[in-house]
Design goal:
heterodimer; A: alpha/beta; Rossmann fold; 13 strands; B: Glycerol-3-phosphate (1)-acyltransferase; 7-stranded mixed beta sheet; 14 helices; 9 strands; Phospholipid/glycerol acyltransferase domain-containing protein (chain B); Plipid/glycerol_acylTrfase (chain B); Epimerase_deHydtase (chain A); Lipid_A_modif_metabolic_enz (chain A); NAD(P)-bd_dom_sf (chain A)
Chain lengths: 356, 407
């Protein structure tokens, strides 16, 4: 088998982000072949990607790595919600055991040269003792006991172990902030699609988002380059939850923290597990990460800032009809401001710039 | 429909309850002498009356056709004032259009007289902003709009300069100028550019000394002082939100160095809760200065340390007691008892008007130390002690200067 380019194995292609990333990667001239692996078949078009239906916990993957002489593995099947899998236990099983098996298979394979893992900034947790911006060498201030952040933390531990055992393989771990964009269906995206957005009374957390294009862009950069290490991936700047809700033109509904999960779940008509404790903590304390290393060492600069990413998402969200919000007052204020600034003898810049 | 004339209510006679057989004087006046025409009572429907203004007078009392009157009521407030003194006259056509368009919006409650609101608004604006009210009001409205649409800027720490300027500083000003009559010394010691660490004593049960220092620094140098707060601040609802908006961040090595590297003016109160929650009897006695983390942060970033001594804050809420059991229950460092709180309830929350002096001391340079000094506990303790001694000595001197607590 003569190889003109990289042979890439991508896990988690049944979900939208994984599918689009794999498809996008298959079009790259430097990549010869892309193999997508997942337990369920993808819903959309996979393009030039060859799909293998397999569970990561299955020895099929190890055989596949050897047979296809895969040199790059992109692991993005760590999921935040049980979704179709049912319970939290099976989610943990798929996340943690799946990763262990995949890394075990990579360790055996003589051809693998590059492993890219999509992790999450959730590993930093969210608490009142957090610094304003996490850098890559910091850990969570309060250890998560369960849930997605715990899974991600354990997975990262296994990935570091793998990197130690196979020093010839360059391992890159991308800790992505909450991915958002018109096509994203994540817990946080679902949260912002609620007609009235429940918030925690008295808290206004700082949020950070990364646009879906930047996630795929950064993963692609990771596949095509050879920089090893852990990197935070997030759009520039932060957005307050209240700002985000207002940009959506929606109303926030402040509830006490213990009621947030119940209210959120009731509104969406889903089980409580969808409103996991790490999401609740995130909506109380928020989180910010420093992306200096991403730019300087990894060599990728996100195209969207946090604000731009969120605005792009907001433009895809339909306004719920008849929901009262502060937005009603906006045209009136706009009219008044316009009137006042247009009065001829008063020179005021149109924007109503503040000068203290 | 004729012009409605305004009839003052309840000024021409003894107040009547209007509950008996005989209508009150005010009620008789309202009827305009046509009482005997067996007037049907106006509908007591709260929805029909404009909110917050006098109910429009139905002139032809006793006219048949109650339903027609109803329809008129909804239309009247918008139409009638335009014929008399038109409060919209001052605004140009575009404004009028915008206002009327807003009024026609679906889902708007019927009968809110926009014109009257505008008039009231105009007067209020003139009252508040003075002659230049149009420009200033426009700015204020622009500010409100940005709040509503969420289009304001915050930095990575969640600091909202605009809100701080508008709200925090505006409320702090009368407190600083009129109530505490803060006297500031040594402003020239605050660098006008670049990072610096302002280290101050802490007192007063409620961290008003931090607010006042922030205000004075902003007022006199135009720079924002960015305080470092205890983690408790970020655990409390509302407090955490206000603190982040006001520029506070967590007092930890990472944040302190990040801010100082960013060239910010950072404020730290190393005594923490030991200082702010100390009994009144121990006033002006500096507490322990922690582990000197602030010194190592300053050394690593090479910024000067400016010792600040605040006199006056100790007397605003004299802490005479504590309720440790309650404090434990709520996870707070202390629950204060002052001579007036909780005795006088909310009135006890009014701070005593002590006379304040804030002195910014001479900067202590840290850039001359070896980079490894930041890891050397002895050097750290030495510098910490130096800062502490400076503040303590200055406090004694300032106390001698002050004629009396309330002078």
């Amino acid at each position: 088998m003569t190889q003109a380019g990289k042979v890439v194995l991508v896990t988690g292609v049944s979900r939208d982000l994984g599918r689009r990333f794999a498809r996008n990667l298959a079009d790259d001239p430097a990549v010869a072949n892309v193999i997508g692996v997942d337990v369920t078949p993808p819903e959309g078009d996979l393009g030039a990607v060859s799909f293998v239906r397999a569970d990561l916990r299955n020895p099929v993957v190890a055989k596949l790595l050897v047979r296809e002489r895969v040199d790059t593995v992109v692991h993005m099947s760590v999921v935040a919600t049980p979704g179709g899998m049912g319970s939290r236990a099976s989610m943990k099983e798929a996340n943690v055991i799946g990763t262990m098996q995949l890394l075990g298979a990579c360790q055996r394979s003589p051809d693998v040269r590059r492993v890219v893992v999509k992790s999450t900034t959730t590993v930093y947790g969210a608490s009142h003792r957090d610094p304003s911006m996490f850098t890559e060498e910091m850990g969570p201030k309060v250890m998560p006991r369960s849930g997605y952040s715990r899974d991600a933390l354990e997975i990262e531990g296994y990935v570091r172990g793998f990197a130690r055992r196979r020093p010839d393989v360059s391992v890159a771990m991308l800790r992505a902030a909450n991915v958002i964009g018109p096509g994203v269906d994540s817990p946080i995206a679902q949260y912002f699609r609620l007609p009235v957005v429940p918030t925690v009374l008295g808290f206004d957390p700082r949020l950070q988002f990364v646009h879906e294009h930047d996630l795929t862009g950064a993963l692609r950069h990771a596949v095509l380059t050879d920089v090893a290490g852990t990197f935070n991936l997030a759009g520039d700047g932060v957005l307050l939850l209240s700002q985000a809700i207002r940009r959506l033109g929606r109303a926030g509904l402040p509830v006490p923290s213990f009621a947030l999960a119940a209210v959120g779940s009731a509104m969406r008509g889903v089980g409580r597990s969808e409103f996991a404790s790490d999401l609740v903590n995130f909506l109380i304390y928020g989180r910010g990460v420093d992306t200096t290393r991403l730019r300087d060492e990894f060599g990728y600069t996100p195209r969207y800032t946090t604000q731009q990413a969120f605005c792009d998402f907001a433009s895809s969200v339909d306004m719920p009809p008849g929901v009262p919000g502060l937005a009603v007052a906006e045209p009136l204020l706009a009219g008044l401001e316009h009137a006042l600034t247009r009065t001829p003898d008063v020179p005021v810049r149109a924007g109503g710039e503040l000068d203290g | 429909m004729d012009d409605a004339d305004i009839i003052p209510i309840g000024t021409h006679g003894a107040a009547g309850r209007g509950a008996g057989a005989k209508p009150s004087k005010a009620a008789r006046d309202l009827l305009g002498g046509q009482r005997r025409a067996a007037a049907p009572r106006p509908p007591r429907d709260a929805d029909v009356h404009p909110i917050g203004v006098e109910p429009p007078v139905q002139q032809p009392v006793g006219q048949p056709g109650e339903s027609e009157a109803d329809a008129d009521l909804a239309a009247a407030p918008v139409a009638s004032p335009t014929s008399a003194a038109d409060p919209l006259a001052g605004l140009d056509a575009a404004a009028r259009e915008a206002i009327e368009a807003a009024d026609r919006r679906p889902g708007k409650r019927p009968g809110i007289p926009v014109a009257e609101i505008v008039e009231a608004f105009t007067h209020a604006a003139m009252e508040v902003f003075g002659d230049d009210w149009e420009r200033k009001t426009a700015h204020f409205i622009a500010f409100l709009r940005r709040r509503i649409t969420g289009e304001f800027e915050i930095d990575d720490y969640g600091f909202d300069p605009e809100l701080t300027q508008r709200l925090l500083m505006t409320t702090a000003r009368p407190l600083a100028e009129k109530w505490f009559r803060v006297e500031v010394r040594g402003v020239e010691n605050i660098p006008t550019t670049g990072g610096a660490l302002i280290v101050s004593n802490h007192s007063g049960t409620v961290p008003l000394d931090a607010v006042m220092t922030m205000f004075e620094v902003q007022e006199r140098t135009g720079r924002h002082l960015r305080p470092l707060g205890a983690d408790l601040v970020f655990r409390l609802p509302f407090v955490s939100t206000i603190a982040r908006r006001g520029g506070v961040t967590l007092a930890c090595q990472e944040d302190a160095e990040r801010m100082l590297n960013g060239g910010e003016l950072v404020g730290v109160w190393p005594e923490g809760f030991k200082g702010i929650g100390k009994p009144f009897a121990e006033r002006y006695k500096l507490q322990r200065f922690g582990r000197g983390g602030f010194v190592s942060a300053a050394m690593r970033t090479g910024v000067p340390i400016i010792p600040v001594s605040v006199v006056g804050a100790e007397e605003i809420y004299p802490l005479v007691g504590n309720v440790p059991s309650l404090a434990r229950l709520f996870g707070l460092p202390y629950v204060p008892i002052t001579p007036f709180f909780p005795l006088l309830g909310p009135l006890g929350l009014v701070p005593l008007p002590s006379k304040w002096i804030i002195e910014f001391g001479e900067p202590i340079r840290t850039d001359e130390y070896d980079p490894s000094a930041a890891e050397d506990p002895l050097t750290i303790f030495e510098v910490t002690d130096q800062v502490r001694e400076t503040i303590q000595q200055t406090l004694y001197q300032l106390l001698m200067r002050r004629r009396s607590v309330f002078g």
